[in-house]
Amino acid sequence: MAKNRVSIAIMGLGNVGKNFLSILDRQSSLISDRTECEFIIAAASDSRHSVLYRNGIQPGELLDLKSGGDISTKGQPLRAGETFASSFHVLVDMSTASPDGKRERDVYVDSMETGKDIVTANKSPLANHWSDIMDCSRQQGKSVLFEATVAGGVPLFSLLKYSCGPSRLVRFRGIVSLTANFVLRKMGEGLTFERAVRMAQELGIAETNYTDDTGGVDAARKTVILANALFGLNLRLAEFKFQGITSSAATEDSSRLITEIVSEPDGTKVFSGIRKLDAGDFLASFGEMSLGYEVETEFSGKLRISSVSDGPVETAAAVVNDLMLLAGQKFQGKPGNPVRI
Ligand SMILES: NC(=O)c1ccc[n+]([C@@H]2O[C@H](COP(=O)([O-])OP(=O)(O)OC[C@H]3O[C@@H](n4cnc5c(N)ncnc54)[C@H](OP(=O)(O)O)[C@@H]3O)[C@@H](O)[C@H]2O)c1
Fold this sequence. Notes:
The protein is α/β, with parallel strands linked by helices. The chain has eleven helices and twelve strands.
């Protein structure tokens, strides 16, 4: 059967972006069989270049270009001020989170207004500009999928949306930030903050600039997205008070940086900060590379979901899964969807 050709523009080719390309490359037959779609990379950008590939570029070839240090040696580099205005179907954002999310919001809004759907792993635009982005999505009839923004590869938004449809959530509690909790655990075991951060960097789970993680911003962004997506709030990061790691926070090795959101009669309470966990607490059972959460639902009971290990591979797999879901919703069974690069 003829496959639909779905063209994508990729922003960000770092740890997550490169794993995304590897998965597209290695799993191309499976992905194509399951979605009835063939994905064509029509454009890509990193911090230095934005490039159009008029005839498409294979994921493996783009990976090779990125490894060589310059993705513009093939394709047509955009000039300063030019955007990906050309035709593609889906924007996939795996770029560095900007502090205020404005750069990404503007790209998303432009993209949706010109007919594109969005898949993102980047928390900042959603945590800072949720209503702008979701209003535009509704007005334009375009999708914004963001499974990878919270708890890496642990199924969360799709699972709850597609499996707990008739229920509202009563409570959410989770450990959704790997790096901060790794550092906290090591401090609880007696390491200094600096040594704990260095260990996290050696393991590749902390960025060179780790302060978003240890300062609690990364977890707060995720908490804002959770509160908005799961509890129907309209929070913005700027108006949300949160905690990060302080040297006194981890005198107990049971201290963790957690997210807690509870629906109460007088409103929804949202927390992102340090809590000392009891030994019997589900969140206390996680390993140092685990992420997960428990939710209380109206009719589907209390659910507990966690990963044994998480990182950029699992996050990239969640991005690919969103792309596949989108393809299923928008393109499957609708042949004749030409790629216009
Ligand atoms: N790592 C994880 O496990 C994980 C989990 C969940 C969510 N996320 C989110 O996913 C995104 C990517 O994470 P990562 O670990 O892959 O980060 P990363 O390794 O630092 O890669 C970031 C990529 O974004 C590119 N970039 C920077 N500014 C850009 C711009 N203005 N336009 C286009 N691209 C730009 C960088 O370009 P250069 O290559 O030129 O530097 C790099 O390729 C982040 O928003 C992160 O918060 C990551």
